[in-house]
Design brief:
The complex is a heterodimer of chains A (about 325) and B (about 425).
Chain A lengths: L1 H26 L7 H8 L10 H12 L46 H25 L5 H18 L14 H9 L4 H7 L8 H9 L6 H13 L68 H12 L3 H15 L5
Helix pairs in contact in A: 5-7, 6-9, 6-11, 7-8, 8-9, 10-11
Chain B lengths: L2 H4 L3 H21 L28 E4 L19 H22 L5 E4 L8 E10 L3 E10 L4 E10 L17 H16 L3 H19 L1 H4 L3 E3 L5 E3 L8 H75 L5 H80 L28
Parallel strand pairs in B: 1-2, 1-3
Antiparallel strand pairs in B: 3-4, 4-5, 6-7
Classes of the chains: A mainly alpha (about 325), B alpha/beta (about 425).
């Protein structure tokens, strides 16, 4: 009797709940997946859900362990029978002499000469094959090309929206500041087309920071910055111009010497460059490792670009990017 | 007298049911599962200085076993794309090759279509799992004497940072696995004496020679009971037949170099789309697995909640609110589980779509490199048969010993041994 009452109460509650669910489902059907499809397709899936990966993996490994489906190799001299599963690579034991006579070349030619000629012919074939590949830009020759391409892609993308600054108008501090926005990584792109802009140091720097764009605008903009010449990070000529604190880590200057932290106008990450250590002997900010330990290719190129950079604003931006790549927290 | 005194069991049961309901509700609320990937980066051991040539073993990495039958259909359940796997079976050995080369601790490293006696060390692997998130490879290595260097499973769950655009160029998202394999091989090699290494190199050369001119070199080797090769004697250094055998072996290296140009081509063509696919697949796989797990937890919790409500009532529970909470929680759980499953289906479809996209991209590349491999190995095979015949004649002419023609075989130069069966076997 009690059980009946219980079941009855639960059934009533369940019915009410079900009605509510259906009502809700009807109201929000535009954002849900069709329940029929959802439940239907789930029918065959394991009830344990998706967390059963490791089990199935080991199962697969086990099922493959019989060696079925492996590529087969046949012995060229082959009297050896294939080894049983689990054995090391064996077989292919040289065939034993068992009757028959040498066939001879049949042409009366010296086999040694024919052999040498055949080797030469093969060399020619392989040489032609490699040459054809090289001419069509295929093969491992692409390695350097691809690597260069991926580097420059990383360079371009790492600056984020900053690449837009390549078309900067080149007037005033804001433009100069926007150059670091594209991230000093742009400077690496500039290695491919360094500057091409302006003969003066500032212009060249802009070209580097302009990355692949190498636009006239960036050259100009950096030219301005270069002229302004605040020199953190050990620029021998201008360390005093930098409002660096005792620890040399006060945010640096605007490109035209405005002394204000650079707004991130280019959407990039190169906001205000850090003030340098007030002209360290080796030109490295204090937080940059001297030995370059742990550097990857991008970081290495950034370091080289920063060390070669004359424009302090761009140099700061390059060091900023270097810090980002290396995961050095800016102090 | 209190109820508890009259029925000491009843109230705790009610409390238990209530607690269960609350716990289930909490579980439902918090079962949007996140996951922290435990990842340990393995760095590649690199050469500290120049290594003597005698200690540099030449390595042949056989194209990996894709872990699926060629021409197999898409495995809907495991989301295994056969053409993707076929592409990986060619991409992964090449990445391992570049890794081993980068260590500076090996001689020449080639990817080879099948086992070759021209190399000192043969490496082979099978792809058990690769979806951008988890990679499981089984890798074996054997030297020319037949000694097994390693035969084990490598499994890594790939972290998001492995796909970072700031990582070093040439570093694959699965780089830790390749580094681990290379380091393990190195560890084994370092445990060997210089004499052992020299033996491996000599045996490799003589096995190649024995496959090429059995009459001249077969007697230099013997196999022990375990099937391992041992040196019986070395041929004279100025033996002209040794020089000829080495000349042929050089051609096999040239063939391997050329083949590797094609594999390199595939590797570079595939690198970007393969990485994109893996990155996307990783994200979707995490989402999919989380949703499936979440759906399971919610469904189970819902069912348990309903059960708890029934048990509570059947044991005389007189608090309607508890029953109500249990039933309500149960239905909410089940409803929520269904929703999560529907969401997981969307993720699954996204995975499938991405896989099919990459599948379509990889397939022609694989077909092309396979075609080139067959063409080149076919050419080389014809030459190899010719060289075997000529060397047999030369040997007969020089020694006066009549050497019979061996039966025709279909192997390429130096592939006189079957593939290592042990690769897929348990260690």
């Amino acid at each position: 009797m009690k059980l009946q009452r219980t079941v009855y109460r639960v059934a009533v509650l369940a019915a009410a709940q079900l009605a509510a669910v259906l009502l809700l489902a009807g109201c929000s059907s535009s954002t849900m997946q069709p329940p029929a499809g959802a439940t239907g397709s789930q029918g065959g899936l394991p009830s344990s859900g998706g967390a059963s990966g490791s089990g199935s993996t080991s199962g697969q490994a086990g099922s493959k362990s019989s060696g079925s489906g492996q590529p087969s190799g046949s012995g060229s001299a082959g009297t050896g029978s294939p080894p049983a599963a689990g054995s090391p690579p064996t077989g292919g034991q040289p065939g034993a002499a068992s009757g028959g006579v040498p066939s001879g070349t049949g042409s009366g030619e010296d086999p040694g000469a024919v052999f040498d000629k055949s080797l030469g012919d093969f060399d020619g074939e392989m040489g032609r094959e490699r040459e054809t590949m090289a001419k069509s830009g295929q093969g491992s020759g692409r390695a350097a090309e691809t690597r260069q391409e991926s580097d420059s892609t990383a360079v371009r993308t790492a600056g984020g929206a900053g690449t837009n600054s390549g078309s900067g108008t080149g007037d005033g501090p804001n433009v100069s500041v926007s150059v670091p926005g594209m991230g000093g990584i742009g400077g690496i792109g500039g290695i491919g087309a360094p500057g091409g802009i302006g003969g003066e140091p500032g212009g060249m720097a802009g070209g580097q920071a302009g990355g692949q764009a190498g636009g006239q605008g960036s050259g100009k903009s950096a030219g301005k910055g270069g002229d302004a010449g605040v020199g953190p990070d050990g620029d021998p000529g201008t360390p005093d111009d930098t409002p660096a604190g005792a620890d040399g880590k006060i945010p640096g200057t605007g490109g035209a010497g405005s002394g204000t932290p650079a707004p991130d106008t280019a959407g990039g990450t190169g906001a205000a460059g850090p003030g340098g250590p007030g002209g360290a002997a080796d030109g490295l900010p204090a937080d940059i490792p001297r030995d370059g330990s742990g550097e990857d290719q991008v970081a290495k190129q950034l370091r080289e670009a920063a060390m070669a950079e004359n424009d302090p604003v761009i140099r700061d931006a390059l060091w900023d990017e270097y810090r980002k790549v290396m995961g050095i927290r800016k102090k | 007298m209190t109820n508890a005194a009259l029925n000491p069991v009843r109230r705790p049961r009610g409390l238990l049911a209530a607690a269960t309901s609350i716990a289930l509700a909490a579980a439902l609320g918090g079962c949007s599962v996140g996951r922290t990937i435990d990842y340990e980066q393995t760095d590649l051991v690199r050469a500290a200085g120049e290594l003597p040539d005698a200690e540099r073993l030449d390595v042949g990495i056989i194209l990996f076993d894709a872990g699926v039958e060629a021409g197999a259909e898409l495995d809907e359940k495991k989301l295994i794309f056969p053409e993707v796997r076929q592409a990986e079976a060619r991409y992964m050995p090449y990445q391992l090759k570049t890794t081993m080369e980068a260590s500076g601790l090996w001689g020449s490293v080639w990817v080879v279509p099948e086992r070759s006696d021209a190399v000192d060390l043969t490496v082979w692997g099978r792809i058990d799992k690769s979806d951008g998130l988890d990679v499981v490879l089984r890798v074996g290595a054997w030297d020319a004497t037949g000694r097994e260097w390693l035969n084990r499973e490598y499994a890594v769950t790939v972290p998001e940072k492995a796909y970072s655009k700031y990582r070093e160029a040439g570093q694959d998202p699965y780089q830790s696995v390749y580094n681990e394999i290379a380091n393990d091989l190195l560890k084994f090699r370092q445990a060997m004496s210089a004499k052992d290494l020299a033996t491996v190199r000599n045996v490799a050369e003589l096995r190649y020679g024995a496959a090429l001119v059995p009459a001249a070199f077969a007697g230099s080797l013997e196999q022990d009971k375990s099937g391992q090769y041992r040196l019986r004697r070395l041929p004279a250094a100025d033996d002209p037949m040794v020089a000829r055998m080495r000349a042929v072996r050089e051609r096999e290296y040239a063939l391997a170099d050329t083949l590797n140009e094609y594999y390199a081509n595939l590797y570079y063509e595939l690198a970007k789309p393969y990485e994109d696919w893996r990155k996307m697949s990783r994200e979707e796989m995490i989402r999919y697995q989380d949703l499936r797990r979440s759906a399971f937890i919610r469904g189970t919790a819902g069912a348990l909640s309903l059960l708890a409500a029934v048990l509570y009532e059947s044991n005389g529970g007189d608090n309607g609110a508890i029953t109500m909470a249990g039933v309500y929680g149960g239905f909410e759980g089940i409803k929520s589980a269904l929703e999560k499953r529907a969401e997981s289906n969307v993720s699954r479809d996204a995975l499938k779509e991405a896989g099919e996209g990459f599948n379509a991209e990889a397939e022609p590349l694989v077909v092309e490199v396979e075609g080139q491999t067959r063409r080149l190995t076919g050419t080389a095979e014809a030459r190899y048969q010719e060289w075997r015949r000529l060397l047999r004649e030369i040997y007969s002419a020089e020694t006066g010993i009549a050497v019979p023609a061996p039966p025709e075989t279909a192997a390429t130069a130096g592939s006189g041994t079957p593939l290592p069966d042990a690769a897929p076997a348990a260690p």
